[in-house]
Automatic annotation (TrEMBL):
The chain crosses the membrane at residues 43-61, 86-110, 122-144, 151-170, 214-234, 255-275, 281-301. The keyword Membrane applies. It holds the Pfam family ABC2_membrane_2. PANTHER family: ABC TRANSPORTER PERMEASE YTRC-RELATED (PTHR39177:SF1). Keywords: Membrane, Transmembrane, Transmembrane helix. It comes from Bacillus amyloliquefaciens (strain ATCC 23350 / DSM 7 / BCRC 11601 / CCUG 28519 / NBRC 15535 / NRRL B-14393 / F). This is YtrC. GO terms for molecular function: ABC-type transporter activity. Coiled coil: none annotated. GO terms for cellular component: plasma membrane. It comes from the Bacteria.
Length: 307
């Protein structure tokens, strides 16, 4: 089903654009132009969603359902199981999109639109972005013990550069009363431009299409890094802790501390924004500390039952 969707969405967008154009021609006095603009697609930029679903099915549900022990009892090494799962999923995601890309190109040649905008760059980019989404969620599934932990970890990693850099800098502005934009203009320019593409979640938007064709190198490199992390975790980690948030017990406390710090900083900014006062900022930090502790405690230390 994932493959059929990915293969059909690109040619469907071209065909739908043509049908809209034909409907315009049947309207008396209407000014009609037939052009294909991939940036106007409403479905093509959702190709990452089936990739996430496939990654959860291949790498998350096996621990939530408790079937991973049976899987590892088969006469195959963990590395063989991981490579089979990963490359099967990547082949479905990339292969069927290549098929859809070719069918859409064939329709463009047959229907002859007046203009074609961003078609090749956008189609190739969506393949890379969807592979990134699959690899990120799959890697999170190799690190965690249930699907909730898998998705939550993948989301946190997708905005990690913002949480690590932008959030502390914004709090520093509030605490010290300085403006980072004026204090460090080159850094500010970097954060507002290139830095955003280090956040995997940024690629859900389509701004990368018009930014630069070399931007796609970043998600390609990130996919390789996440693949290496997922492989290492799948092969080296214990499996008896399935149902827990992290498979490695040593990660529980450090991650809980990080979650509490992020909650304190985030709620502190929220409290400061309500009245632009340090009292609101301090109250927000206190609330954030309590919320971060409770959420992290029940999410990380409470074992999830098998489905």
């Amino acid at each position: 089903m994932v493959g059929l969707f990915l293969a059909a969405v690109n040619p469907f967008e071209v065909l739908n654009t043509y049908l809209v154009y034909q409907g315009c021609l049947d309207t008396p006095g209407a000014y009609c132009k037939f052009y294909v603009n991939s940036l106007e697609s409403r479905m093509l930029n959702l190709n990452w969603a089936p990739a996430v679903i496939l990654a959860v099915c291949l790498f998350g549900l096996e621990r939530t359902k408790g079937t991973i022990d049976t899987l590892f009892s088969l006469p195959y090494s963990r590395a063989q199981v991981f490579h089979t799962k990963y490359w099967l999923g990547a082949a479905v995601i990339a292969g069927f999109q290549v098929i859809g890309y070719g069918l859409a190109e064939l329709l463009i040649l047959l229907l002859k639109p007046e203009r074609v905008y961003f078609f090749h760059h956008y189609s190739v980019g969506e393949i890379i972005v969807s592979v990134l989404a699959f690899t990120l969620v799959a890697s999170a599934g190799c690190l965690t013990g249930n699907t909730f932990a898998q998705l939550l970890t993948a989301f946190a990693v997708s905005i990690a550069p913002y949480l690590i850099i932008t959030l502390p800098l914004t709090n520093a502005e509030v605490i010290f009363g300085i403006d980072m934009h004026e204090l460090m203009p080159p850094v500010n320019a970097y954060l507002n431009n290139s830095f955003q593409y280090l956040n995997p979640i940024t690629y859900i938007d389509t701004n990368w299409v018009s930014a630069s064709k070399y931007i796609l190198i970043i998600p390609a490199v990130m996919s390789i890094i996440f693949y290496a992390i997922g492989y290492f975790c799948y092969v080296r980690q214990p499996v008896e802790r399935n149902g827990r948030f992290f498979l490695w017990r040593q990660l529980d406390r450090p991650i809980q501390i990080v979650v509490i710090i992020i909650a304190v900083l985030g709620f502190g900014l929220a409290g400061y924004s309500t009245g632009q006062t340090m009292t609101g900022y301090a109250a927000g930090m206190l609330v954030g500390g309590a919320v971060g502790f409770l959420v992290s405690y029940f999410a990380i230390y409470k074992k999830t039952k098998h489905v």
